Amino acid sequence: MPENIPDPGPNTGPKCPNSSGIFRLIVDMPGGFADKPASMKQTAAPSLAFVLLLLGTTLGLAGTDLVLPAVPALPDVLDGSAAMAQLVLAAFVAGGCVGLILFGELGARMDQRSLLISSLIAYALVSFGCALAPSLPSLVALRFLHGLAGSAASVFAPGMIRAMFSEAKAVRAIGLMGSVESLVPALAPVAGVWLLAVSGWNGSFYVIAVLSLLVAALVQVQRHSLPVPPPTRGTGSYVRMLTSPVYLRYALTQAFTLGGLLIFVFGAPAMMTKALGADLDAFILMQVVGIAFFIAGANTASRLAEMFGAERMILSGTALSALGLIGLVVYGVAGGTETRVVTALFVPVNLGLGLRGPPGFFRAILASNGDDARGAALVILFILATTATGTAIAAPFVTLGLAPLALVAAAVSCLSVLLLVTLPKLQGS
């Protein structure tokens, strides 16, 4: 794949002067087709297609977060061990990783709309199977298939968004999608607790099954509103992207910035309760504040990128996120234990990710040189691998204080800055 991939340049689509906020996206999205080739223009409003893609990716995330509250009860209900119950979560993630690679390859060769519908139906059927699982080992096996089927929407959504909108509107759409997805880990477990109380451990699986069938039906009905990215077949491959420094610039820095944040988040509950002597309310406050600033950053990233340039926003957001984690390291080394200070220092970590996330992800898709499905799949796989590896490295040290956990997260995040200043940009950036 050529390393100097042409940059699409500034947005040439029509402007809508009364679009003052991200939620105007749903209103003025149709204008995004103005700078697309005739083969990509659709007759239906792209806002509906975007909502369907958002529902599909959210359901994939719910496969972990909605089920989470039921996991502790599984050994008593299905006769197994607590360790086996944790595999219900691990198997879903493992299946998702395989699904990313599989759907990335299939999406480069087949009609992504058909694949999306089929995957949602398969996700629903496996959800019903999980709800009826007779034993914990069988549930673990089904959860691998569950994660595999649920990963398709996250692979296809970025490329379809790119095909539907101009660059500026695509960045806004990705920012809005990221904002909604960031709420799933916070809100889905609350719904999961309620479902556990009213319908038992399998209630969340029934809900996922019914909603997946509903979304599949809606996608089928509105099939014409979804774009059809041209298949790459033999012209692209994972190997080409893995050996492209331009693609790796955006894909790896996206993974390392988000991975650094998630490593800290995953270790924070144990660190705060065991090392800092706080309770989980402190962690919840940190998360709520962090998510709020992430949403604010993600929903202004497009406007700021138009004003200052996407590359500047990617670099400044990445540096801001890394500096926030470095600040946490310094505070920890100084012996700081006040959780409100930790929350304040965590704000730039989230804000920086919000500012760089949408334009960074979009440029990773651009850098895949038309191989959008494989490009999106690798970005998400890099994020999962970075988070899993960093979390494993930090795990033995989370009870020793703030500094060790923050140091692992900061080291990963600083790699993003290093790669941004060493790897080549998209041509014309």
Describe the structure.
By secondary structure, the chain is mainly alpha-helical. The protein has 2 domains: 44-229, MFS general substrate transporter like domains (Growth Hormone, Chain: A); 237-422, MFS general substrate transporter like domains (Growth Hormone, Chain: A, Up-down Bundle), CATH 1.20.1250.20. The protein has 16 helices and no strands. It has helices at residues 25-28, 46-65, 74-78, 82-107, 112-131, 136-149, 152-164, 167-199, 203-221, 238-242, 245-275, 280-308, 310-333, 339-367, 372-394, 402-422. The model is unreliable at 1-44 (pLDDT under 50).
Q: Characteristics of this structure?
A:
2 domains; Growth Hormone, Chain: A; 429 residues; disordered N terminus
Look at the structure and name the CATH superfamily of the largest domain.
MFS general substrate transporter like domains
User: In angstroms, what separates the terminal alpha carbons?
Assistant: 18 Å
Order of helices and strands: HHHHHHHHHHHHHHHH
CATH architecture of the largest domain: Up-down Bundle
User: Roughly what percent helix?
Assistant: over 70%
Q: Beta-strand level of the residues, as a percent range? A: under 5%
Structural class: mainly alpha
Give the quaternary arrangement of the chains: single chain
The CATH topology of the largest domain: Growth Hormone, Chain: A
**Mean pLDDT score:** 86
Number of domains: 2
Task: Present the secondary structure layout.
Layout: H1 25-28, H2 46-65, H3 74-78, H4 82-107, H5 112-131, H6 136-149, H7 152-164, H8 167-199, H9 203-221, H10 238-242, H11 245-275, H12 280-308, H13 310-333, H14 339-367, H15 372-394, H16 402-422
